[in-house]
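Lecture notes, continued. The same structure-token format from the folding unit now serves as the input rather than the output. Read the line below as a description of shape only.
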């Protein structure tokens, strides 16, 4: 069972700039917990996501030597990927690929066709530099723009990604509209159709529906969950009102009830929760 902690997603929509030293302190604490991966920053235009303009400076101050966690950075184009692959300690590059034409334009200023071309270029960079490309299927459970959507569309694009030899696909509920039966169907069908691909869940939710979504993904065989402590975060490019991430503590509580909780340091996790409160409530 893999837990991907996403401070990048938690921070990106906050307008008031979080000082670099606070980000460094927080992510260094997260590195002590034992998460599989830390989604720590992004190499995108500072105009698009000003909160994350200091990702390289944050990276330079991270204490990676004693941590078993791997780092993931988001990129939105080939230029960002060229920057990201230069950092030895980054294992994963994440690309937000939307099956909604409107959201792909809003999020990366690309059409779907242009985004697929960029994915091909980024995949080649990842192979050359020994990185793994994680592709997020954004708006994977529906969209608010009346763009065409059906579960079969998700499978069609997963097939295209498979031809690019993408190894990890994360189904992203960007605006929190997924339903348990939809989650179950997609994970069961996609895992059968593409057994060589690791499928993860990047679900946004309000607290009232979080457990049923986690349960649906888990029972359908998902063993890769993205979360953010306290449920902070959301995509500032999607709608005016952010829908928060799944709270990592809720994911872990559910997995504990199923005897599937990964090994983490309880003390380090508790300290991280306290730090999350102090950082995010202050901004």
């Amino acid at each position: 069972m893999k837990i991907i902690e996403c401070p990048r997603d938690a921070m990106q929509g906050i307008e008031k700039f979080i000082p670099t030293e606070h980000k460094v302190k927080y992510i260094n604490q997260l590195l002590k917990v034992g998460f599989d991966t830390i989604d720590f920053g992004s190499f995108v235009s500072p105009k698009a996501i000003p909160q994350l303009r200091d990702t390289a400076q944050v990276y330079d101050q991270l204490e990676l030597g004693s941590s078993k966690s791997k780092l993931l950075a988001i990129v939105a184009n080939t230029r960002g990927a060229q920057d990201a692959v230069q950092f030895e300690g980054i294992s994963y590059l994440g690309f937000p690929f939307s099956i909604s034409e409107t959201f792909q334009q809003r999020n990366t200023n690309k059409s779907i066709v242009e985004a697929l071309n960029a994915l091909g270029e980024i995949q080649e960079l990842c192979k050359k530099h020994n990185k793994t490309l994680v592709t997020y299927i954004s708006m994977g459970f529906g969209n608010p723009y009346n763009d065409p959507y059906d579960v079969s569309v998700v499978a069609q694009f997963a097939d295209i990604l498979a031809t690019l030899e993408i190894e990890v696909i994360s189904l992203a509920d960007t605006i929190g509209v997924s339903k348990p039966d939809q989650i179950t169907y997609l994970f069961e069908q996609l895992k059968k159709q593409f057994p060589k691909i690791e499928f993860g869940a990047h679900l946004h939710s309000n607290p009232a529906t979080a457990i049923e979504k986690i349960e649906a993904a888990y029972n359908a065989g998902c063993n890769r969950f993205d979360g953010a402590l306290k449920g902070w975060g959301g995509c500032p490019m999607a709608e005016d009102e952010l829908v928060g991430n799944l709270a990592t503590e809720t994911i872990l509580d559910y997995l504990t009830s199923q005897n599937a909780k990964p090994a983490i340091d309880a003390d380090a996790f508790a300290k991280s929760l306290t730090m999350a409160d102090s950082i995010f409530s202050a901004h």
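Point for the exam: The chain has one domain: 2-281.
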